[in-house]
Amino acid sequence: MTTAQAKAQSSILKVPGAQLYYEVQGKGPVLLMIPGGPTDAGIFATLASFLADGYTVVRYDPRGNSRSLLDGPPEDQNMDVHGDDAAQLLATFGAAPANVLGSSGGAQIGLNLAARYPKLVQTLVAHEPPCRTLLPNSAEHEAFTESVYQTYLSSGPGPAMQKFMEGAGLAGGTQPQRSAPPSPEAREAFGRIQGNVDYFLAHGFKPIGAYVPDVAALRAGSPRIIVGVGAASTGQFPCRSAMALAEQLGTEPLIFPGGHGGYNDDPSGFAATLDQALSGMSATSTQL
Predict the structure, then answer these.
(1) Is 286 within the bounds of a domain?
(2) For position 7, what pLDDT does the model report?
(3) What is the pLDDT of residues 48-70, one digit of tens each?
(4) Which domain, by its residues, includes 115?
(5) Residue 28 is part of a domain; what is its CATH number?
(6) Most CB contacts within 10 A, which of 86, 214, 246, 265?
(7) Quick check: is 285 in a domain?
(8) CA-CA distances (angstroms) from residue 173 to 126, 165, 235?
(9) Which of the 8 DSSP states describes residue 137?
(10) pTM of this prediction?
């Protein structure tokens, strides 16, 4: 059995106000994967299998999602608290700075982590962070966010998520062709995600998008920051916000295969691009 085929080992880390469920597999330098929105560690299961021969892959459920239970009632999510959680998780793997992949809202957490705990991060790949505050029409996006939230309050999670997906350009149109069907672990994760949608819309949707990355700290800090965008994401809100962040950082975005969920659209291609980026061998994008 290869390292990539070895089953991930799960553990629980107690943090203030919650317990973090995480899984570890592989060997080599630590690669922390942070999922976004209502998702959890399971969405990276297939991607991790392509990277576990070269990295110690750590995947976790952000607090309040799936198996990372809160100690008390839900509260609005706070990026500093999420950043603290990620820092405490990394600290359990030693003092050496780690590589970090954050996707969507997980990229927002990664940006917070890299800005506030620079000694813990070697390279952060922030894939399509939804930092709407950096867009020139941020007021329009703020109004849209509020309308989605009000739809959730009046009509429930289904209509609200549909409105969000359509408004962000993530629903309809030509969808990326997946290179392989989802793994059993990924299918299991999709089921758990459905149970997280209420929590996400009630307590995460607004604060995650409202988070303003500390661009000055990121530019001045020691971690290398790579902003990723999907090849199939052109024109979509997450892609545009990621490109706005890259512009403020003074870097070019790195194109990954697939769309907003490229880690599942083409996990082998996504893994290859990520590995090259972390190894310092990848050229950045010029145009989308």
Answers:
(1) no
(2) 83
(3) 999 999 999 999 999 999 999 99
(4) 9-278
(5) 3.40.50.1820
(6) 86
(7) no
(8) 25, 12, 12
(9) T
(10) 0.92
